[in-house]
Amino acid sequence: MTEKLGVERVVNAPLPTVHGEFRAVGYLDHDRGDEQVALVHGDIGAENVLTRLHSECLTGDAFGSQHCECGDQLAAALRAVVAEGRGVVVYLRGHEGRGIGLLAKLRAMALQAEGLDTVEANLALGLPVDARDYRVAADILHDLGVNSVRLMSNNPRKREALVRHGIEVAEQVPLLIPPCESNITYLRTKRERLDHHLPHLDAVLPHAAGVSP
């Protein structure tokens, strides 16, 4: 790859977790100034690497919020990588609330409690529905020597972004978390309005593929 990467590898440290042993590879994103990290398990190689691009979600990842499925997805991805014997979870800071930031996300959640869906809430605040940029994730994968991935994601836009930035997506692996009462409306909106592939919702809401009420 001849294009200059926008990230600089700063540190590589062992990180034992409840899911297994990882290496935490820390990066500085020179374009945005964000500090980023990739959790690497095993000898990942270059091709068909099981990979998750996980957008930072403080409420879900750290606090166990059931408003979304993010915390469960992160844990499931880490477990899957360990079960595979090799893989990468790129944890993307600056992606809070699909890129609008923590406080704006909390404001959007307050509007959702009043009846708006996650798309309507962002728009009501004058904010983009999804402001995330995955270039930094592709740069990190390039630095790790990864050419193609098996991408753990239900979001087609992640696949499109990686391909656009020079990473082949050999397969898109579903990462389906059983819904609960607190997040079923949110998940349904992601399916109907953001094109997420969530076929498991059919078992909970047989009409989920239809028009939102």
Automatic annotation (TrEMBL):
<dbReference type="InterPro" id="IPR032677">
    <property type="entry name" value="GTP_cyclohydro_II"/>
</dbReference>
<feature type="binding site">
    <location>
        <position position="68"/>
    </location>
    <ligand>
        <name>Zn(2+)</name>
    </ligand>
</feature>
<feature type="active site" description="Proton acceptor">
    <location>
        <position position="130"/>
    </location>
</feature>
<feature type="binding site">
    <location>
        <position position="153"/>
    </location>
    <ligand>
        <name>GTP</name>
    </ligand>
</feature>
<feature type="binding site">
    <location>
        <position position="70"/>
    </location>
    <ligand>
        <name>Zn(2+)</name>
    </ligand>
</feature>
<feature type="binding site">
    <location>
        <position position="57"/>
    </location>
    <ligand>
        <name>Zn(2+)</name>
    </ligand>
</feature>
<comment type="pathway">
    <text>Cofactor biosynthesis; riboflavin biosynthesis; 5-amino-6-(D-ribitylamino)uracil from GTP: step 1/4.</text>
</comment>
<keyword id="KW-0547">Nucleotide-binding</keyword>
<keyword id="KW-0479">Metal-binding</keyword>
<keyword id="KW-0686">Riboflavin biosynthesis</keyword>
<feature type="domain" description="GTP cyclohydrolase II">
    <location>
        <begin position="8"/>
        <end position="174"/>
    </location>
</feature>
<feature type="binding site">
    <location>
        <begin position="96"/>
        <end position="98"/>
    </location>
    <ligand>
        <name>GTP</name>
    </ligand>
</feature>
<keyword id="KW-0862">Zinc</keyword>
<dbReference type="GO" id="GO:0003935">
    <property type="term" value="F:GTP cyclohydrolase II activity"/>
</dbReference>
<dbReference type="InterPro" id="IPR000926">
    <property type="entry name" value="RibA"/>
</dbReference>
<feature type="active site" description="Nucleophile">
    <location>
        <position position="132"/>
    </location>
</feature>
<feature type="binding site">
    <location>
        <position position="73"/>
    </location>
    <ligand>
        <name>GTP</name>
    </ligand>
</feature>
<protein>
    <recommendedName>
        <fullName>GTP cyclohydrolase-2</fullName>
        <ecNumber>3.5.4.25</ecNumber>
    </recommendedName>
</protein>
<dbReference type="InterPro" id="IPR036144">
    <property type="entry name" value="RibA-like_sf"/>
</dbReference>
<comment type="similarity">
    <text>Belongs to the GTP cyclohydrolase II family.</text>
</comment>
<keyword id="KW-0378">Hydrolase</keyword>
<comment type="function">
    <text>Catalyzes the conversion of GTP to 2,5-diamino-6-ribosylamino-4(3H)-pyrimidinone 5'-phosphate (DARP), formate and pyrophosphate.</text>
</comment>
<feature type="binding site">
    <location>
        <position position="118"/>
    </location>
    <ligand>
        <name>GTP</name>
    </ligand>
</feature>
<keyword id="KW-0342">GTP-binding</keyword>
<feature type="binding site">
    <location>
        <begin position="52"/>
        <end position="56"/>
    </location>
    <ligand>
        <name>GTP</name>
    </ligand>
</feature>
<feature type="binding site">
    <location>
        <position position="158"/>
    </location>
    <ligand>
        <name>GTP</name>
    </ligand>
</feature>
<dbReference type="Pfam" id="PF00925">
    <property type="entry name" value="GTP_cyclohydro2"/>
</dbReference>
